[in-house]
Amino acid sequence: MSFEKLKKSFDNIATESISSSKLADEHYRIEELEYQSKEEDVKKKRLENKSLEQDVFQRGCFSWIILISVGLWIVAVFAVLISAGLGELEFETNVLITLLTTSTINVIALLIIVVNYLFPKNK
Question: How high is the pLDDT of residue 101?
Fold first, then answer.
């Protein structure tokens, strides 16, 4: 009889150690999945930061190109107007008015586009 009791207690100990081993393995798998999830979140955030840095750089370059283009356009329009005023170029009044109007509209439109692109409205 004592041999039977000893065998049962040994079986109980073996079963308990196997179940605790399974629990430890399951706990380890859960921790590993959580770690992988956090690691993926960090990678995602790094990619988002890199994308934002590129956007800022491209916006800066884009705004300088637009600013230089608008400046050159205005200088060209003033050169034409001064030349027409000095009599070096001859244009009808309607042509000069059209040149000034379209240039003004183009400059304002480009500046609005650049400002909206550089400072988007958050939704």
Answer: 92
Q: Where are the domains of the chain?
A: 2-118
pTM of the model: 0.55
pLDDT digit string, tens, across residues 41-58 = 888 888 888 888 888 888
Instruction: Give Cα separations from 71 to 14, 59, 60, 82 (angstroms).
Output: 85, 18, 16, 16
Mapping DSSP onto H, E and C, the string for the chain reads CHHHHHHHHHHHHHHHHHHHHHHHHHHHHHHHHHHHHHHHHHHHHHHHHHHHHHHHHHHHHHHHHHHHHHHHHHHHHHHHHHHHHHCCCCCCHHHHHHHHHHHHHHHHHHHHHHHHHHCCCCC
- Whether pLDDT at 122 is above 80: no
